[in-house]
Write a structure and sequence with these properties.
Layout (H helix, E strand, L loop, with lengths): L4 E5 L3 H13 L3 E5 L2 H10 L4 E5 L1 E2 L2 E2 H11 L4 E6 L4 H8 L5 E4 L4 H31 L10 H14 L5 E4 L6 H10 L8 E5 L5 H9 L16 H4 L4 E5 L6 H13 L1 E3 L6 E3 L3 E6 L3 H6 L5 H7 L2 E4 L10 H16 L5 E2 L1 H9 L5 H15 L4 E2 L6 H4 L4 H5 L4 H19 L4 H8 L3 H11 L6
Parallel strand pairs: 1-2, 1-3, 3-6, 6-7, 8-13, 8-14, 9-10, 10-13, 15-16
Antiparallel strand pairs: 4-5, 11-12
């Protein structure tokens, strides 16, 4: 068992000494106190992993002591000790912060198993705490890279969602950054000090999704050799991100709906309900409305999830975001590769701006990463990009699946190139042929990355 520090809060000196001797024999560092005030003084002074608290401490209530200790150090994992006739008090403790309970007289073999599970949970919570600060800055909404009005609306909705505890449903194609939206909501909210848990539903076999989400008792299914803590339990006080919610099997849709209604769930193989203060953020790349009509997704669950709706547009609908995203990815991967890359040539940027990006931001990032690896100069040039980007696209292929404003962009780019070529690159004459001012022409050239027309 890993080295750890425990505190025993027990007013009976004989019982306190007995527990302490057993735990010290297992290699734990053990503090023992008789009152709540002594317990608070100890946890303020020393790092404590697990608190073992008797329910009755003279005139004090052990539940109140647990709550006071958690206010002092939220990472402590409390275990309640209760007499046989006071199991209902232990259940109340579980609902108010205790991890588990032990009934007197203590069976020390079972006691050690409970402590082992508590320490596993404690390790997880501490790892989350260590990562939290870096994640908070990395996934703050202000770190979104965009210039488009479409993403301004997404950022506005992230801000509203961060100020609420309502469930959020994020929709959008694969690769648009739905996971980044979910992280930004969590790390911009009052839950940022709590855990952020994520589960990609299609990545798990259907037989394991339930135990992964809700946990399982020992023996609940073949291979369940010990109690398993699920994501709902591990995410208490924080956010649980359910990615690709449209792939959740129907019988688990019912269980998720019950949790959203009651804030309670059951471990697989258990009849004891567990309350959990967890915010749910879900995402999908599927048409849930169509799935409701086909009766493959529950209508009542959809309405429970769809309190705050955030749609992340595909990259092809916001091409003005491509240049800042490219700059962001160049800096990111140039630093990793220890290369001095200042930017990207206008020809290479033009190739990126005309590409439809079916894989969205994820595909753009992969392309830029590859280009940084291949680049030999101070700028990324056309030859650093994948071959399929440098091959000319047929006009119909270019415009396939594009919105009207994107088709207008392609047409304008084509006509501007033609006018510049026919006028030897003289902007004033090209603008006159196009029927626009030179100032507007210069703006469009910059916007479309046409500084060096081909």
């Amino acid at each position: 068992m890993p080295e750890a520090s425990l505190i025993i809060v027990e007013d009976d000196p004989l019982q306190r000494r007995l527990i302490k001797e057993h735990l010290e024999g297992e290699g734990f560092l053990v503090f023992d106190v008789a009152t709540g005030a002594e317990a608070l003084s100890t946890v303020r002074t020393y790092p404590v992993d697990v608190a073992i608290v008797d329910h009755k401490l003279g005139e004090e209530n052990g539940l109140e002591v647990i709550q006071d200790m958690l206010k002092q150090n939220p990472l402590i994992t409390p275990i309640m000790v209760t007499a046989y006739g006071n199991v209902e008090n232990a259940v109340a403790a579980l609902k108010n912060g205790a991890y588990d309970y032990i009934v007197k007289p203590i069976d020390f073999d079972k006691f050690l198993l409970v402590i082992k599970r508590a320490l596993e949970r404690q390790t997880l919570r501490r790892e989350i705490s260590v990562l939290r600060d870096s994640l908070e800055e990395r996934f703050s909404a202000r770190n979104f890279v965009f210039t488009s009005s479409r993403m301004e609306e997404v950022a506005r909705l992230i801000g509203k969602a961060a100020r609420s505890d309502a469930t959020v449903l994020i929709s959008g194609e694969t690769g648009t950054g739905k996971d980044l939206v979910a992280k930004s909501i969590h790390f911009s909210s009052h839950r940022k000090d709590g855990p952020y848990m994520a589960i990609n539903i299609p990545s798990l076999p259907e037989t394991l999704i339930e135990s992964e989400l809700f946990g399982a008792e020992k023996g609940a299914f073949t291979g369940a050799h010990e109690r398993r803590i699920g994501k709902f339990e591990a995410a208490v006080g924080g956010t649980l991100f359910l990615d690709e919610i449209g792939d959740l099997p129907p019988h688990l849709q019912v269980k998720l709906l019950r949790f959203l209604q009651e804030k309670e769930f059951y471990r697989l193989g258990s009849s004891r309900s567990i309350r959990a203060d967890v915010r749910i953020v879900a995402a999908t790349n599927r048409d849930l409305e169509a799935m409701m009509k086909a009766e493959t997704f529950r209508q009542d669950l959809y309405y429970r999830l769809n309190v705050i709706r955030i749609h992340v547009p595909r990259l092809g609908e916001r091409r003005e975001d491509i240049p800042p995203l490219v700059d962001h990815f160049i800096r990111k991967y140039a630093q990793r590769e220890n290369k001095s890359i200042a930017g990207i040539s206008s020809e290479a940027m033009s190739l990126l701006l005309r590409y439809p990006f079916p894989g969205n931001i994820r595909e753009l990032e992969n392309i830029v990463e590859r280009a940084v690896v291949f680049a030999e100069g101070t700028d990324i040039v056309s030859s650093d990009l994948p071959l399929f980007l440098t091959e000319p696209l047929e006009e119909d292929e270019q415009q396939a699946g594009l919105a009207l404003n994107e088709r207008v962009r392609l047409l304008e780019s084509k006509e501007i190139r033609k006018a510049l070529r026919e006028n030897g690159g003289v902007k004033s004459r090209a603008a006159r042929d196009l029927g626009i001012t030179e100032r507007i022409l210069s703006y469009k050239i910059r916007t479309y990355g046409l500084e060096k027309p081909v």
